[in-house]
Automatic annotation (TrEMBL):
Highest taxon of source: Bacteria
Name of the featured protein: ribose-phosphate diphosphokinase
The keyword Cell inner membrane is annotated on this UniProt entry: no
EC number: 2.7.6.1
Main EC class the enzyme belongs to: transferase
Species classification: Bacteria, Pseudomonadati, Bacteroidota, Flavobacteriia, Flavobacteriales
GO BP annotations listed: 5-phosphoribose 1-diphosphate biosynthetic process; purine nucleotide biosynthetic process; ribonucleoside monophosphate biosynthetic process
The reaction(s) this protein catalyses: D-ribose 5-phosphate + ATP = 5-phospho-alpha-D-ribose 1-diphosphate + AMP + H(+)
GO CC entries: cytoplasm; ribose phosphate diphosphokinase complex
């Protein structure tokens, strides 16, 4: 049997175990066995318990803070490289540090480029991720990048709501491309919010470009962190006469008091994927799993088949 036909191995970093179990089940393979040795000072050492020599290896781990999550992925990649894996795909459902994609002021790091360099140096021969904060991050890698879109899983869910008079909204100017892609599929109108900072770090005002009166609104974004922008946008749109406002966000970072903001806002529903595990449940949060999408693309990568048919946008 040639190396290309050997059954691949799927391993999980601890921060993404729940998602990795779903991906492996959807793929049709068990998760590979990993042991972690912990030192008293907080250092840790992952070990792949089974042989990966000559095989394709998928290592699943989102790199949201704290930095131990990134470090664990790097150590796992290095372990696979030193165990003579033939191909090593870093499956990073949420690519953390992506907001540092450029020098937006003097004397700052470009964190996303640094992380890309580390992942490649650790041994990744391919990268698979979803809804990067900035598309150009793909260019930070010298290895192939499979950049998946969460619209593939979200749009069927939104269609199934069978709502009429739908409008897609972007919470800021930077997300307008994503909003137009959703609107094209849904055949809907688009509105855009923009924030105006009247005094640094003190007052934010939000304005709305477009009409939402009598409309069901889908606010789309790649991530939700503190939830302040989305909560404010939802409240503004309801004041402007919207019938309902739902937010669709790929990566549920939900830091600080985000859960409280969401629950107290006029958002009817927050629809997220499971790239990052939720810290707690909420009656307003609906999780749509990205596991079948990743499993399908992993199958296609293993079989050297095109994945372009996966993309709804």
């Amino acid at each position: 049997m040639g190396n290309s036909q050997l059954t691949p191995k799927i391993f999980a970093c601890r921060q993404s175990t729940a998602l990795a179990e779903k991906i492996a089940k959807s793929y049709g393979l068990p998760l590979g066995n990993v042991t972690i040795s912990n030192f008293s000072d907080g250092e840790f050492q992952p070990a792949l318990v089974e042989s990966v020599r000559g095989r394709r290896v998928f290592i699943i781990g989102s790199t949201f803070p704290n930095s131990d999550n990134l470090m664990e992925l790097l150590l796992m990649l290095d372990a696979a490289k030193r165990a003579s894996a033939r191909h090593i795909t870093a499956v990073i459902p949420y690519f953390g540090w992506a907001r540092q994609d450029r020098k937006d002021r003097p004397r700052v790091a470009i964190g996303a480029k640094l992380v890309a360099n580390l992942i490649q140096a650790a041994g990744a021969t391919r990268i698979m991720t979803m809804d990067l904060h900035a598309d150009q991050i793909q260019g930070f890698f010298e290895k192939p990048v499979d950049h998946l879109f969460a619209s593939t899983i979200f749009l069927p869910y939104l269609k199934d709501l069978k709502l009429e008079n739908v409008t897609v909204a972007s919470p800021d100017m930077g997300g307008s491309k994503r909003a137009y892609a959703y609107s094209k599929y849904l055949g809907s109108e688009v509105v855009i919010c923009y924030k105006q900072r009247l005094k640094a770090n003190v007052i934010d005002t939000m304005e709305l470009i477009g009409e939402v009166e009598g409309r069901h609104v889908f606010l789309v974004d790649d991530m939700i962190d503190t939830g302040g922008t989305l909560a404010k946008a939802a409240d503004l749109m309801m004041e402007k006469g919207a019938l309902s406002v739902r937010a669709v966000c790929t990566h549920p970072i939900l830091s600080s008091d985000a859960y409280t903001k969401i629950e107290n806002s006029k958002l009817l529903e927050l629809i997220v994927s499971d790239t990052i595990p939720l810290k707690r449940k909420s009656s307003k949060i609906k999780v749509v799993s990205c596991a079948p999408l990743f499993a399908d693309v992993m199958h296609k990568v293993q079989d050297n088949r095109s994945i372009s048919g996966q993309f709804l946008m």
